[in-house]
Amino acid sequence: VFIPYNTAGDPDLSIARKAVEILDSCGSDIIEIGLPYPDAFADAVIQAAAAQSLA
């Protein structure tokens, strides 16, 4: 089972949309899209992606 995670809008909306299209074409079973928020408590990579999306 392939379930990738992508932060919505990271690094910008057009690239995030293209990333989801590529993940879909690569056979993702499910694509998890995280909603960025300023008080993220996830790991550092997800915190950085959320901060960049909100900038």
UniProtKB/TrEMBL annotation:
Pfam family, one: Trp_syntA
Record keyword Nucleotidyltransferase present: no
Gene Ontology molecular function: any one: tryptophan synthase activity
Record's catalysed reaction(s): (1S,2R)-1-C-(indol-3-yl)glycerol 3-phosphate + L-serine = D-glyceraldehyde 3-phosphate + L-tryptophan + H2O
EC number assigned by the record: 4.2.1.20
The keyword Amino-acid biosynthesis appears for this protein: yes
Pathway terms, separated by semicolons: Amino-acid biosynthesis; L-tryptophan biosynthesis; L-tryptophan from chorismate: step 5/5
Domain of life: Eukaryota
Cellular component GO terms held in the UniProt record: chloroplast; cytosol
Protein keywords: Amino-acid biosynthesis, Aromatic amino acid biosynthesis, Lyase, Tryptophan biosynthesis
Self-association and partners: Tetramer of two alpha and two beta chains.
Protein name (database record): tryptophan synthase
